[in-house]
Structures are given as C-alpha cells and as structure tokens.
Amino acid sequence: MTDERVRQMSLANRLLTRPEFGAFLALVVVWVFFAIVAFDNNFVSWVTTAAILNRAAPLGILAVAVALLMIAGEFDLSIGSIVGFAGMAIMLLITPAEAGGFGLPVWMAVLIALIITLLTGFFNGVLVMATRLPSFIITLGSLFIFRGLAVAIPRLMTNRTQLGGFEDYDSGGWAAAFATKIEFGGARFDIAIIWWIVIAAIATIVLLKTHIGNWIFGTGGDANAARNVGVPVAKLKIALFMVTALAAFTVALIQATQLNSADSLRGTLKEFEAIIAVVVGGTLLTGGYGSVLGPVFGALIFAMVQQGIIITGVDGDWFRVFVGGILVLAVIFNNFIRQRASKR
Question: Fewest CB atoms within 10 A around its CB: which of 3, 159, 171, 271?
C-alpha cells in the first residue's frame, strides 16, 4: 500500500529533474538535424561516427574532471594551458641533450611530467583555499602562468615552441596504449575513446556510489554546512583540482602519442569548451547539482556540430555562434530545472 503522504512523480517529472536530460535531448535533436541535412554526405555512417567520437574523447576527458570540480562549487580555467604545458614537459624531458632537452627514457619523462602536472593542480587548489579568493580569479592567473611557461621554457632551451619525434624514443609502448586505432565498420576509432569511457565510468561510480560523491555534492551545495558535519572541504577541493590537472595530463599524453609531437599552444580555449560542455550537461554554475553523464553528452554535442559543419561545408566560424547560443540556452534551461527541482 502506497503512503498517501508520499508524492508520486510522473516519469516526465523524474526525467526533467535529471541533470543530463536536457543535454540528451539536445544531442538527439542535433543528430537528427545533421542526419537529415547531411544524409547525402554520409553523416549516418561508421566513418562519421568515428570522427565524432575521436573529436569528443579529449574534450570529454577534460569535461568529466571539470564536472566534478564544478559540482563542488569551483572552476578551473587553467586546464587548457596545463594541456600545453604537460605536453611540452613530456617532449622536453625525452628530447636529447644535444637538441636542448634532457634525454630521459620515455617512462621516466612521463612519470616526472605527471608529478609536475599534479603539482600544478595542487598549487591551484592550495592558493584557492589559502587566499579564499574565487577559483575563477586564481585559475585565470594560472591560465596565463602555465601558458607562458609552456612557451618560454621550450623556447629558452630549444629555441622552438613545437617539439616532435615522440615515437623515435618510445620503447615502452606508450604510443600503443594511447594512440592505437581500432578498426570497426570500415572506420578507425581512437583508443582515447576507451580511456574516456573508463574515466567517465569511474567518475560516475565515485560521484553516485561513494561517500566522496556525497562530499562533492554537499560541498557544492553549502561548503560551511558540509564542513560542520565533518567533510574535509579544503582537502577535497585541492584533490579535485589535482584531478582536473590529471585529466589535462592524460589529454596531453594522448595528443603527444597520436600526433608524435607537442605544441606550446595546444589546449588553447579547451578550458572554456570543457566548462561549456559541463554546463550544457546540466551542472549548475553555482555547484551542488550535476552529473558525469551530462558532460559526456555535452562533449558529444560539441564534436557532432563540428563534424556536421565540416561535412555540410558550412563556414567553421558559425561553430562559435552555436557555442555561444547553446551556452545561453543551457543556463536558462538549467535554471528552470533547478527551480522545478526545488519546488519538488
């Protein structure tokens, strides 16, 4: 017997209160639009599907990490710069000494670059906690710091801002782990897609099935209340900044192995694209509400529109118009959902 004091919600209402529902609808609408408009250009094909997923994977990896941080009520605007910084760190460490590098084995270079990158995330988190300034301001400064270092250090050591030849020094199979192509349906899928799926699955489990996930939601909802019930807010946020740095490192390593090179400007504007993918995915800018699946859909929307524009031959400048428009619509829709959820 159902307790009459418990309000029964319809399926529609339950779906509307899911953070990722709006992004899923947008994804379906975008796919149907391009499936109709670009059908003659083979939009509905394994080749196009592979191109979309290959484009979405790096952004999706960043968006998953950014989502966790934003749900906890913080921003990281330095993540794109850290992609470029981490990639150049890897290549500088493996570049021979006679060419201006350090000539280290790849495994050692990757390990050292990982540690350096994690320290950048730690640096961001500690500054935010110690100064109590908005993370927007702190990481905006970090954006310029790490982009500047990514340009200045390689130029000082090698007189270059692009370094290649990763595969020439790779004897440990790093390229195979991060740059392998999987053949299916006559198309080639990057193994980065698998990394994206695994990372998203782990993040989902952490967010929904562990006490750390409860801490993340609680901290984003009301940090003081969370602190009063024993949540280690400062340590949690510092750890999440390190997670975003780890995501940036992962993308940098994927790009270094796939493209056999690093570029000081790689990752430019990716911090904004990741944040937009997260917002489109239903995460509130104010924190305390969101999901991992939503940003996955957000990254897919980005990639699908980019690929659709290429296939249809539309001027690529229109993509930025789409990005701005969908951001505004997503914020409006998310605000509506928040109000509806609050009433429920």
Answer: 3
